[in-house]
Amino acid sequence: MEAKRLQLLHELMPNAAVVAIIVNPKNPQADEQLQELQAAARTLGVQVEAFKAGSPSEIDAAFAKLVERRASALHIPANAFFNTRREQFVVLSARHALPAIFHFRELSAAGGLMSYGPSLTDAYRQQGIYAGRILKGEKAAEMPVQQAVKIELVINMQTARALGLTVPLPLLKALVASYK
After folding, report:
1. What is the CA radius of gyration of the chain?
2. Are 78 and 1 in contact (CB under 8 A)?
């Protein structure tokens, strides 16, 4: 998913030379996310710079550094801690006029530029179905593991306008297709 997010950000901003990524060093998947993103960046001809943040103050510091390094765009990978700091990410992205892509629609709805990832609503629905099956007597250990089925692309057009970005037609078509 990280590679696809970078591709979508690149489609929106093909001239972005440096894309910053903020990773949580406390996240066991952080290295894997960064490696996936760096491999995708090489394919797209984009430079990725990583910044670490595992606390609210480190998020502020990471933004200060990435602005100083003149990052053109920002990629925020999936991370439970980052989900709890969505307002901070959105405010800092807006303050620094930095286009950012996130993993859940809720971050775009809060003012972030774009998101691409699984639908939390769909995931919660699946959890409810599983809970119902368990309450009816099925054994949790015998139930198959399921992954998100519904993937959403969301572009906050108001944020895009505020950043002076024009969303290209192929990306708009992909946006419409993701809701069919």
Report:
1. 17
2. yes
Enter the tokens of residue 60.
């502020």
78 DSSP β-pair partners: none
Place of tokens 């250990």: 141
Q: Is the dihedral of CA 27, 24, 79, 88 positive or negative?
A: positive
pTM, two decimals, is 0.84
**Structure-token pair, residue 11:** 């489609």
Unique residue bearing structure tokens 């980052």: 82
Nearest in space to 46 (alpha carbons), one of 77, 7, 93: 7
Residue 148 pLDDT exceeds 80: no
Architecture of domain 2-117+152-162: 3-Layer(aba) Sandwich (3.40)
The residue that leads in pLDDT, 138 or 146, is 138
The C-alpha atoms of residue 6 and residue 48 are separated, in whole angstroms, by 10
HSE-up of 176 (CA within 13 Å, CB side)?
Answer: 6
Inter-helix orientation angle 169-177/2-12, to 10°: 140
| 155, 168 contact by CB (below 8 A) | no
Q: In 3-state terms, what secondary structure has residue 98?
A: coil
Residue 101 — very low, low, confident or very high, per pLDDT cuts 50/70/90? very high
